[in-house]
Write a structure and sequence with these properties.
Layout lengths: L32 H13 L6 E4 L4 H4 L1 H7 L3 E6 L7 H6 L3 H8 L4 E4 L2 H9 L5 E3 L15 H10 L7 E6 L8 H14 L3 E6 L12 H13 L6 E5 L4 H10 L2 E4 L8 H8 L4 E4 L5 H4 L6 E4 L4 H12 L2 H14 L5 H16 L4
Parallel strand pairs: 1-2, 2-3, 3-4, 5-6, 5-8, 6-7, 8-9, 9-10
Helix pairs in contact: 7-10, 8-9, 8-13
Amino acid sequence: MRPTNVGSGSTDYELTSKLWDSGSRGRSRWMTLPDAVRQLWFLLTHARTYDIVQFHSLSWGTLVSPPLLHLLGKKAIFNSTLYGSDNPSAVWQARRGHLAGRLLSHFDAILAISPMLAEDYRACGFKNVACIPHFMALPQLQQGCDEAARGKLRQELSIPSDATVLLFVGSVIKRKGVDLLAESFARLSARHHDLWLVVVGPNSRAENLNYDEELGRAVRGTIDGAWAASRAIWTGTVSDKDVLARYYSVADIFVFPTRSEGLGNVLIEAVTAGLPVVATNLPGCTDYVVADGESGYLFPPENVDALTQAVERLVADPVLRARMGQAARAGSKRFGFGDYCRQLKAFYLSVASIRT
């Protein structure tokens, strides 16, 4: 797509309306041959409308596009968003990974959303690599929520005003660590009878094709077995941003025991909401958002004991929660939309100047 005012100093851009959606959501990331052909045909027939193409998903259609774009005098960017999936170390280990890795090297530049992803690309020999983390996309959280509004929201959810509420936002899949969260909550709920859990995420495959039904049953079974089901709220998929912001406002602690991420947009939302965070320590990823010991706690992957200890420390100390929440909100200013636009514009202009 070609912004109409790329030469200006503005952070708002007008884009053409021609977009490509492979329609492969819910299927394998490796698009079928017909999908790849359609994508290449789209790029060919709309060549006059763009100078640079940025790809957001890894597929054979994506991987074979740069040579065509170079023939057309265009540039190709790959946007890497998930460590263990679209970074070169992971790509090379996958089936036909050697071929995929070689094709990946034909991109003019790599845009990584976290230092962890950028470092892997550089370590694997890629030259034009930029790290531009995502911006905070839920401005409602910047407004905060006063105690009266917070109390009203809790009343609507039947959560006691004096309860301590843990919040998780994400898909019910193994990668997100909801099984670790359930085990930790089950342990803590036996010792803290005022502890509640709110899970914002799909409840069935009808809501999201990636929903892991077996894992979902296991997670609920763990909580039911601890006699804590009455203190767990499963919201289902929340698409309305105003409603999502309300869930952040009723929470006291954000818990994110993910096993693998690119950066974790929900972490940015949580710190913007002023919540102390307990998250898996993924160097170059989660520690970019959460300062361990200052705005929350980072625990070793898969370590339920460490997760539980970190959450309990915050549950038992409201003053500590408040101090870390304030630090979290102060640190969230790094993720402003204006700064993101300026960095992205500079990156695009640098790619445009690359000689092929």
